[in-house]
Give the backbone structure.
Amino acid sequence: MNPLNHVAIIMDGNGRWGLKYKRSRNAGHKAGLKTVEKIIEATIRNKISFLTLFAFSTENWKRPKKEINYLFTLLENFLINRIDDLHKQNIKLQILGSKKFSPKLNKILSNSEKKTSKNKKLQINLALNYGSKSELIEAIKKMKKNKNTITEENLSKNLQTKNMPDPDLLIRTGNTKRLSNFLLWQLAYSEIFFEKKLWPAFNEKDYNRIIKEYKRIKRNFGKI
């Protein structure tokens, strides 16, 4: 059975779910947050060390301003109300991406990272204002500035994910089959599962099924 240390998830389908069932994209985002909590619990039960969630991409700024504001307010309230509980559960929170948000949200994110920085049970990476192409460009700039030799190892050391293993498994919900500029370097040898269910409808049973399927896959990494 394959070891499973790191799961990455593209949480797609909140808006579509909201329109279908509640006639509101924002209702879908709110429901999607409940799914996040369930998947965090299931990740702990499965003794997985890293969980990376794609919450907001660099391209998502193209969405309506009202929807963006609602998303960030939802995130602010979640962290204000739940960060102490996450801390008690020995969960570490790390932000991937560029913190170009309101002063209030930036402060909440920084405080949440600082508060949980020494926790060991599970590390949750929240990808916010994140784009893999931008991350790669910044890594190359750092290498040139520091006069590093351009190698795969050095590039990996200059990415935002430098202190963690690459994802073993990527799950994308929402019946869309693309990576959407997410962890392009890190996902090179990840097993990828595309799920038809929209994110708010995704549940622990679905998650556990995928984990079981992943563990049965023969992973060759280029070998026979």
The longest helix spans residues 65-88.
